[in-house]
Amino acid sequence: MTRRNVYLIVAAIIVMYSLIGHLFNVGILKIMTIRKDEFSISIAGVVICIITIILLSYIIRKFKNTNE
């Protein structure tokens, strides 16, 4: 995978989890919550994103190797 593809996958996962978190009002999926005077970062949301990115890259590599 090229570096550009990796960046796109990471950005898509972050946007997907943030969108789901805001639509269903699930605090753990919102990576960053912006309030009037402050903002907070969800450690659990960051960990979930990192685990998803690692699993997705592993799955993509496995499918690439089986197709060759």
Q: What can you tell me about this protein's structure?
A:
The protein has a two-stranded antiparallel ribbon with strand order 1-2. It has one domain. The chain has 68 residues and is mainly alpha-helical. 68% of the residues lie in helices and 9% in strands. It has 2 helices and 2 strands, in the order H-E-E-H. 7% of the residues are buried. It is elongated. Helix 1 (3-23) packs across helix 2. A hairpin with a 4-residue loop joins strand 1 and strand 2.
Q: Which helices and strands, and how do they pair?
A:
Elements: H1 3-23, E1 32-34, E2 39-41, H2 43-67
Antiparallel strand pairs: 1-2
Strand order of the largest sheet: 1-2
Q: State Rg.
A: 15 Å
Q: Which secondary-structure class do the elements indicate?
A: mainly alpha
Could you list the spans in which at least 5 consecutive residues all have pLDDT below 50? none
The total of beta strands comes to: 2
Q: In the residues, how many domains can be counted?
A: 1
Helix content: 55-70%
The end-to-end span amounts to 14 Å
* Mean pLDDT across all amino acids: 88
Number of helices: 2
Q: Major beta sheet, specifics?
A: 2 strands, antiparallel
Shape: elongated
Write out key terms for the chains shown.
2 strands; mainly alpha; elongated; two-stranded antiparallel sheet
Short summary of the structure?
It contains two helices and two strands, in the order αββα. The protein is mainly α and 68 residues long.
